[in-house]
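[Automated response] Your request has been received and processed.

Submitted sequence:
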Amino acid sequence: VQLVESGGGLVQPGGSLRLSCAASGFTFTSYYMSWVRQAPGKGLEWVSDINSDGGSIHYVDSVKGRFTISRDNAKNTLYLQMNSLKPEDTARYYCARGPRGYYSNPWGQGTQVTVSS
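Generated structure:
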């Protein structure tokens, strides 16, 4: 099983980024997938999840209306479109197999998002 996140970077407040998570080694279409983040000095925070066919999606309140989760099952890839970014979105972002709170190992290395002027 391998999860490889990409797309992070340094962006100014109000900017946008699109994160990707390339999945391999398991049946991607069988899994709920989540995005989870960890800000410096803080614990893990669930951000969003999506069921296997994309028909059920959930977000933490702080990103609703700004972030959009999606998946391309043909490409075994999970996405997170992040708009109107705020400094408080600064964190390392991870994709994980499973819905909120029920993650399966292993995790990827994550991708760093820094929102700063």
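Summary generated for your ticket: The chain is about 0% helix and 50% strand. The two ends are 37 Å apart (CA to CA).
If you did not submit this request, please reply to this message.
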